[in-house]
Design a protein that fits this description.
Uracil-DNA Glycosylase, subunit E, seven-stranded mixed sheet, five-stranded mixed sheet, 12 strands, globular
Length: 272
């Protein structure tokens, strides 16, 4: 695959790896192995695809408060990815999702699985790949989660980390996010889904206009223009269609949805 941009360029990944090692507690050599796997999979048409690559012992994630991780299952951490065209000045978009969702059937005792947000390192069967790849051809794009760790309670698999007030109140979430924003210096933040903007609001103590993303609104997070769009999958896709209609955009297409919504936001910014 020939691209006009770089996926996981070493020069630009160095500070990302530093954040993952220092803030998440993942071994630097393992981070290199994971990113090398992401890179080879992204550029290969014939790569053996995996939903995850490697595991990190829970004790390494001690900044997330060890006792909160006891009796938990389906733990997962997504490592952020950065698409860039080195030495060029492009608009910088910080794409923020909720957390590293994992399935209920994954139960690796004492470990959390590693992946990329939306499994974006692999394009086969990936509904996000088309939009994100096209965005990366024009913009610098940083893809990450508002909460870097996900888990389920072993006794109640429907009870998940982002619903635990004690977990989402941990200072490490905002600490990591601030480090990423300081390093990337985006022109704006794009939150995918009401849970992403809701998580951001909890961290910065602002209140979204509604629990449902509908009208395009410019929020402010740490002085950065911040926007939210409905999620692109599942039942949220109906809200995504309505969002595009309400804001006068082209017809909804799931594979191009994030791309089309970004165009809406840029037009919105330029009109101000």
């Amino acid at each position: 695959m020939t691209t006009a941009y770089k996926f996981l360029s070493d020069k630009y990944l160095s500070p990302v790896k530093s954040i993952c090692a220092n803030k998440l507690g993942i071994d630097a050599l393992q981070i290199d192995e994971v990113y090398n796997f992401f890179h080879s999979t992204f550029y290969s048409e014939n790569a053996i695809l995996k939903d995850k690559f490697g595991y990190v012992p829970i004790q390494n994630l001690n900044k997330f408060n060890s006792y909160l991780l006891k009796n938990k299952t389906s733990l997962g951490v997504d490592l952020p990815v950065w698409f860039t065209k080195p030495e060029s000045k492009r608009l910088k978009i910080f794409l923020l999702s909720m957390d590293p969702l994992r399935t209920t059937d994954e139960n690796i005792n004492g470990k959390a699985s590693l992946n990329s947000p939306f499994s974006i390192h692999q394009k086969k069967g990936n509904n996000y790949f088309n939009s994100i790849e096209k965005l990366a051809q024009t913009f610098d794009l940083y893809v990450t989660d508002v909460y870097k760790l996900f888990y389920r309670d072993s006794d109640n698999l429907k009870s998940v980390s982002n619903e635990n007030p004690e977990f989402i109140a941990l200072s490490i979430h905002l600490e990591i996010l601030k480090a990423e924003l300081s390093m990337f210096q985006p022109d704006f933040i794009l939150c995918l889904g009401k849970h992403a903007i809701g998580g951001l609001a909890k961290l910065d103590k602002f209140k979204p206009n509604s629990s449902i993303v509908s009208k395009l609104t410019n929020y402010n997070f740490q002085g950065i223009p911040t926007f939210a769009i409905p999620h692109a999958s599942g039942v949220a896709s109906n809200w995504a269609k309505k969002f595009m209609q309400i804001n006068g955009a082209k017809d909804y297409n799931q594979k191009n949805y994030i791309l089309d919504a970004t165009e809406l936001i840029i037009n919105f910014i330029n009109k101000k």
